[in-house]
Amino acid sequence: MFLGGLEIKMPTVFQLFNFVLLVIETLIGMVGNGFIVIVNGIDWFRSRKLSPADMILSCLGFFRFLFHAVVIQYAISILFFMKTDQFKHLKVAYYTSWLFINTADLWLGTWLSVLYCVKIANFSHPLFLQMKRRFPGLVPWLLLGTVVFSAISTIGTGTSKANVSKCNSFESLLTNNSDLENEIFNSCKYLLLLYVVPNFLPFMIFLSSSILLLTSLWQHKKLLQNSAKDVSTEAHWNAIKALASFCILYVASFFVELLLIVLFAMGMKGIGNLFFLLNVILAYSSGHAVILLFINPKLKQESVKMLHQLKC
């Protein structure tokens, strides 16, 4: 079927199921992250200042909102439109947008984990104590550096448009040409390297800070265990569960994105399989936004107030 010069194809049931799930996760993610940005924006407008945690959360919510918008546009394009000359020019734009936003997202999630670690964890090491004093003041510069670094890494990828076009394209989903598949394989190996190099460092920093924080909280919880129904013990247990969930979502999203590029390099066929992996990736930003609305006192209060107003 043709509409406005574009060739429209009918999706399968499996593809539609994963697409509907993708739409649901996108709506949850965009509403949750958009709400975080709006609440902190109103707070900044009133007081002209934000805490380091709110600065990171605002930037994180903004980039995740953009990430959901890019993914859902890409999903609609590859589900309903066959490869056309008009869409071929958008493939590089989708990939470079993905790389820029996702690199920023990974770094911002890392800074949030580090901030939680230095504010909550209790260690007596001199280096940790120095980080505890200095890190909150460095947050604005770290946010600026994150955007600059993400832009630079994206520009580096943008110089290899041929590799992007060959790898993250319809050919990798639909081709039966062995020579073309070999070219795609080499291109995807190059793109995998471009993804791993700038993003492996924040992943390791995130993992280290999360382990330190969870270890500190667990040790503190064990010290308070003898207290009968101690409020502090319950608060620490809730914090452990929330941070562990954040860590699991972050790690799963990182490795699934690596898997997505590797499967492209191996000639993965099937848009339904692609959508399944995208659902896992989007579960991170959507799930973490929901977690933040439950554990962050200010966000929780504002969300309850908004729900009450809607109910009235």
Automatic annotation (TrEMBL):
The chain crosses the membrane at residues 20-42, 62-82, 94-118, 138-156, 200-218, 239-268, 274-295. The keyword Nucleotide-binding does not apply. GO terms for cellular component: membrane. It is a multi-pass membrane protein. Pfam families: TAS2R. Belongs to the G-protein coupled receptor T2R family. This is Taste receptor type 2. Signal peptide: none annotated. GO terms for molecular function: bitter taste receptor activity; G protein-coupled receptor activity. The keyword Transmembrane helix applies. Keywords: G-protein coupled receptor, Membrane, Receptor, Sensory transduction, Taste, Transducer, Transmembrane, Transmembrane helix. InterPro entries: TAS2R (IPR007960). It comes from the Eukaryota. It is found in: Membrane.
